[in-house]
Amino acid sequence: MAERKREKRDPEQRRAEILAAAFACFAERGFAATRMEDVAARAGIAKGTVYLHFPDKERLFIELVSGIASPILGEVGGMVEKDAVPARAAVAMFYSIFKREVLETERRHLLRLILAEGPMFPVVTEFYYREIITKGLAILRIVLARAAARGELRNPAVADVPQLVMAPALMSIVWATLFEGYEHLDAQKLFDTFLDTLFVPQGGAI
Amino acid sequence: MAERKREKRDPEQRRAEILAAAFACFAERGFAATRMEDVAARAGIAKGTVYLHFPDKERLFIELVSGIASPILGEVGGMVEKDAVPARAAVAMFYSIFKREVLETERRHLLRLILAEGPMFPVVTEFYYREIITKGLAILRIVLARAAARGELRNPAVADVPQLVMAPALMSIVWATLFEGYEHLDAQKLFDTFLDTLFVPQGGAI
DNA sequence: TGTTAATGACTGTCCAGTCAGTCATAATTG
DNA sequence: CAATTATGACTGACTGGACAGTCATTAACA
């Protein structure tokens, strides 16, 4: 019977612990099926304590989902700076960062949450459109336009539809979330095959 | 005060009405947030009546989600039969059927439901993997292998990763479901651009 | 010892599922 | 063919359980 000790904490840290626990719960069972008691238990505290840091369940969810994505963008944004690198390398880096920072972490459940709960929380959807999608597409558009100008694209029209480049990333997440248990999908192969399709082959022979 | 009359119905028809109402409700608000009373109200009947046709909420959901997809597959399957048609036309037809039968109908909410509620209803996920994904991928694999053999693919390796061809369809659905309100995505253009990228240009000059 | 974070029993609400009763229709009878 | 009875689809008030959010009490720390 491990006696739970009361333990005071730095509020900042406690807050972070609650958010982490909440993310785990929401990712696992969705908004409705997650009980505030579950979140508390997972954070190793009592239910009431959660309410000392967040006014209610909805706000906890919104702050949580909004707070997870932001840090990634900076790194992706850096991609567009380097004018020198070939577009293919830039897009490859896009996938690489996505893979490392989203697909292979718990963040992969984020899309599921947004897709699932979005209609109930328009604030969240709007936030993701404005902060993530818009910016991601803008970056891709620049990189693709440059690639088109340099003749690196097999089909220059792709530069007008950057969503096409996001599509394999989306597929990898959906697959990982839903079907990975039934059949493995090699995300790297998915990305590489797409890159080989998108860009004209480089000069180098074997 | 439109007085609701009692009205007996052919059980088959009643059942269908309930399923239609339930689909509308679940698609709109998700499993948890949908009240059985909502479903009943939407079907124009009393709550108790729903329970004459479905044992409980969960079974209603499962039967619903399982019943929606099946009819489409036959048509898609027909695609593979015609060995004569160019692979590009076959894949274009795949997108076309998808667009007409899913994207532009209420069925577009299906993916959201599966993605959102899948983890809570493994039966549903398994059903979709087995009945839809597997078969769709198998068809694409055949078409793509044929295309590769005929030299129609810019990158023959695509034949190994049919998920790549599904990715734009997935993107179109996710976009339509989440972001269409903020920015329109032209699905036809998405598909056409991808087809132009995937397949070697046809001989015909302008 | 006073201050403040933490606790968990408690309250009010919401909803899935039940079931005793209703009534439209069909079957039976005179 | 009108009156009577039987059927079962339909209804909606009700119950029991679950859970979000509260708050009086308790423990930790200064």
Protein architecture, described:
Two copies of one chain form a homodimer. The relative contact order of chain A is 0.10. Helices cover 70% and strands 0% of the residues of chain A. By secondary structure, the first copy, chain A, is mainly alpha-helical. Chain A has nine helices and no strands. Chains A and B meet through helix 1, helix 6, helix 7, helix 8 and helix 9 of A and helix 1, helix 6, helix 7, helix 8 and helix 9 of B. The structure holds a DNA duplex (30 and 30 nucleotides).
Summarize this structure as a short list of keywords or feature phrases:
DNA-binding, homodimer, mainly alpha, elongated, 9 helices, 206 residues
The largest sheet of chain A, given as strand count, sense and whether it forms a barrel, is:
none
Helix content of chain A: over 70%
- Tally the helices of chain A: 9
Order of helices and strands of chain A: HHHHHHHHH
Q: Count the E strands of chain A.
A: 0
Q: Distance between termini of chain A?
A: 65 Å
Short description:
The structure is a homodimer of 206-residue chains. The first copy, chain A, is mainly alpha-helical.
Present the secondary structure layout:
The structure is a homodimer of 206-residue chains.
Chain A: H1 11-33, H2 36-43, H3 47-53, H4 57-81, H5 87-103, H6 109-117, H7 122-149, H8 163-178, H9 187-198
Helix pairs in contact in A: 1-2, 1-4, 1-6, 2-3, 4-5, 4-7, 5-7, 5-8, 5-9, 8-9
Chain A binds a DNA duplex (30 and 30 nucleotides) through residues 5-9, 11, 14, 35-37, 45-49, 51-52, 56-57.
